[in-house]
Amino acid sequence: MGFDVAAAREAFPILQRQVNGKPLIYLDSAASAQKPRAVIDAMRSAMESSYANVHRGLHTLANETTDAYEAARRSVASFIGAAEGEIVFTKGATEGINLVAAGLGARLQPGDEILLTEMEHHANIVPWHFLRERLGVVLRFVPVTDQGELDLAAYQDLLGPRTRLVAFTHMSNVLGTVNPAQRLTEMAHAAGALVLVDGCQAVVHQPVDVRELGADFYVFSGHKLYGPTGIGVLYGRAAALADLPPYQGGGEMIAQVSLEAITYADPPHRFEAGTPPILEAIGLGAAIEWLKGFDRQAIAEHEQRLYARTLEGLAGANWLKVIGEAPGKGAILSFLVDGAHAHDVAQILDRYGVAVRAGAHCAEPLMKRFGVTSSARASFGLYNTEAEADAFVEALTKTQAFFA
Ligand code: PMP
User: Fold this and answer.
1) CATH number of the domain at 5-31+295-401, please?
2) Is residue 362 annotated as part of the catalytic site, yes or no?
3) Where are the domains of the chain?
4) Which protein residue's CA is at the shortest distance from atom 4 of ligand 1?
């Protein structure tokens, strides 16, 4: 089917704006992607024409809003090959991981092991540290090679009889590495461990089928997937979700409440206490339906071309150090400029209208692994063009001249 970037760009009103007198070149989609009109319109139209609280009402607007909210759940489910009841709406990937950690924590013993990797986002490290602090659970970390891949032999060795859970990122937000999620999952299951996959970055750039993957839990955030903030997804295999105790208590997550006792609703509602992010779920559903209109493989190839073109443009730059060179990696370029702090690089690039991220990318252990405290990061989205990749190379070359 191919991918027409010019047509796709038309859907994003924000791409019309200028920054510092230059056309915006947005290379920070790994932090948060821009929103197509389909998302903006769906949320506005819900507020303008059919809004009420969900699941509680008997009136028309409540029923319509409930239908829209549950339709969004079905959109998510079909997007990743899950059943509707396996999709829990959260406020983001971070909340999804905290939910699973809190639930599993109720069953773990001191000395039980959780296996993570050195390339995790803090969202997939800190909730597990809570269990270390509170329960005496032991955290282990799969090392990362110089190229930015997981050391699979070390992974095999680290899997042991006390490993209760393996949690790893499907695609690194710093290195761009795409981990062999299916294989890692099979190895973890063979060792008797549950598996949680952080799909925040991967789900944006490649088709994901949770059944094929086989993981017990898969989390991601709406705002990186061209949807709104304040909404995320926790997929849990039906049996794995059914096994998990509730996270927060409140309305909607119960079956019955009396002064003496409570019983809980079945998943997914057991995990959606209180009024959920209704408009945000509708917005995420719209983002996914919009994305389904594209050949996602063609989008991935487009993004790969942008990445390759950028690297080619920077090929002779002896002042540049790239972090993360795993084969098959995604379109995320983390880099250092000789003699320059990453923050300064980002600020000067902004003068040219180029938006990149700089810092530790919420991955301090990984930065330490590569002997740095920060890097700059250019991350590509479906709306970026070859001309933008070239303009970025030119702006970066000019930026470097400030430090030469
Ligand atoms: N994991 C990865 C790999 C990420 O890139 C991010 C966002 N930077 C997160 C988790 C956390 O996502 P959120 O802040 O939306 O919960």
Assistant:
1) 3.90.1150.10
2) yes
3) 5-31+295-401, 41-291
4) 200
Which residue's CA is minimally distant from atom 7 of ligand 1?
A: 31
% of the chain with per-residue pLDDT over 70: 100
pLDDT at residue 1, rounded to an integer: 72
- Both tokens of 301, joined, read 């190839």
Residue 238's pLDDT is 98
For residue 300, give Cα distances in angstroms to 153, 165, 397. Answer: 29, 30, 27
* Interval between CA 379 and ligand 1 midpoint (Å): 14
Find residue 115's DSSP bridge partners.
140, 166
How many Å apart are CA 10 and CA 13, to the nearest integer?
7
Selected catalytic residue, list 358, 362, 382, 393: 362
What per-residue confidence (pLDDT) applies to 338?
96
Distance 64 CA to ligand 1 centre (A): 32
If residue 228 lies in a helix (H) or strand (E), which one and from where to where? none
The ranges of the chain with pLDDT < 70 are: none
- Ligand 1: atom nearest CA of 223 is 15
Question: DSSP states of 271-300 as a string?
Answer: G--SS--HHHHHHHHHHHHHHHTS-HHHHH
Cα 243 from Cα 228, distance rounded (Å): 30
What's residue 165's pLDDT?
Answer: 98
Q: What's residue 3's pLDDT?
A: 97
For a ligand 1 pocket test, name from 90, 94, 196, 357 the mutation site with the most ligand atoms within 8 angstroms of its C-beta.
94
> Strand 357-359 and strand 254-257: pairing?
unpaired
Q: Where are the alpha helices (DSSP H) in 28-135?
A: 37-49, 60-80, 93-105, 126-135
CATH number assigned to the domain covering 41-291: 3.40.640.10
Ligand 1 atom nearest to 120, measured from its CA: 3
Name the residue of 221, 231, 284 to mutate for ligand 1: max ligand atoms within 8 A of Cβ: 221
Alpha-carbon distance 102 to 347, whole Å? 39
Residues forming a β-bridge with 126:
none
> Packing angle between helix 278-292 and helix 37-49, nearest 10 degrees?
140
pTM of the model: 0.98
- Give the number of other CB atoms < 10 A from CB of residue 161: 8
At residue 57, the pLDDT reads 78
Q: Where are any strands of DSSP class E within 120-239? A: 138-142, 163-169, 194-198, 217-221, 232-236
Give the integer Cα–Cα distance in Å for 91 and 88: 10
> How many residues are present in the chain?
404
